[in-house]
Design a protein that fits this description.
Blueprint: H1 10-30, E1 34-41, E2 44-52, E3 58-61, E4 71-76, E5 81-90, E6 95-100, E7 121-126, E8 134-151, E9 154-164, E10 176-179, E11 184-193, E12 196-201, H2 204-216, E13 222-223, E14 226-232, H3 235-241, E15 245-252, H4 257-261, E16 268-272, E17 275-276, H5 280-284, E18 296-302, E19 305-311, E20 314-315
Antiparallel strand pairs: 1-2, 1-4, 2-3, 3-6, 4-5, 5-6, 7-8, 7-10, 8-9, 9-12, 10-11, 11-12, 13-20, 14-15, 15-16, 16-17, 16-18, 18-19
Amino acid sequence: MDTDHTRSDPAEEAALDAYSRVVTTVAARVLPSVAALSVRTARGAGAGSAVTVGSDGLLLTSAHVVQGAAGGSAAFGDGTETPFRVVGTDPLSDLAVLRVEEATVPPVELGDADGLRIGQLVVAVGNPMGLAGSVTAGVVSGLGRSLPARDGRVTRLIEDVIQTDAALNPGNSGGALADSTGRVVGVNTAVAGYGLGLAVPINATTRQIIAELTTAGRVRRAWLGVAGVPVPLPPEVTARTGQRRGLRVVEVVPGSPAGLAGLYLGDIILNAGGRAVADGQGLQRLMLGPAIGARLPVTVLRKGAFVDVVAVPTELRA
C-alpha cells in the first residue's frame, strides 16, 4: 500500500499553477499603477493608497484617506515620488480624485463591477501599513452591500459595495480591487473585520462621480424629498411589470419636489425616469447632477391603481 503522503496530486498542482498565474499576471499589470500616499493634515500624518486612472496624472483614492488635506506625496513602485494635489473629494461615495505633478506610470483599465459574481476571483493591490506593493487575493464573498457615509448633516448609503475575503489592512484604503483580467472593478474603502473587506464598485454611477470630481472638483446631487422602504408587490402587479418589489413611501418632506409632484404616504414607487425602483438605492442612483432641475417621471401604485406624476428634483445642500 502506498503510504507516502508527501506526493503531490498533478491536478492540484495544475490548479494551483493556474491560480498563481492569474494572480501574478494581475499583480504585474496593476502594481506599477498603484501609489503609496503620504498625507499631512491639521490632525497629523496619514497614509493610504491610490490607483492611476488617467495618462495625465489622475489618481483615484478613498475620500477618507485625503480628508482635510490639500495634497501630499505619492510614491510608485518604480521609485518615483511626486507631490499630488486633491482635485476633488466626495465623502458620500468615499471617492476622491488626485493629480500628481509628474505622471510616469500607465493608467489601469477600469472594469464594470456590475458584472461581478459571488465566488469570482479578485486581487487587492495597495500599501497596507506602509508596505508598498502588497498583493492579496480572494473571492467576491458578497454583493449589493451598503456602507453608510456622511457629509455634514447629509447621510447616504454607498450602494452595491463589494465584499471580499481578500485580506485588507490599514493603508489598503484607496487601493485597487481588480478582477482576473487585471481590470480595476473597485476601490478598497474599509476593513469591516478580520477576513472581511469592502470596496466601492466601479460602475456607471461611480464613473459619473469620478468625471464630476475631475471636471468640477465636487459632485452635485439631486434631492427629491422622499423616504421609503422596500415592499413586495402584489402578484398581479408583478405579472404586469415584471417587478417583484417596489419602494413604499413612508415620508414626504412638505414643499419638497416629491410633495409638489403629488407623491403621498403609502404610494409604492415602481419606476422613476424609466428605470425600475426596488429599493432606496435604486432611487439614489438617479439623484446625481444631471437630474437637478430636470423632469423626472415617476410611476407609483396607489390604492391598486397605476398613477404617473412628474417631479423636478432640486440640488441637495449639505
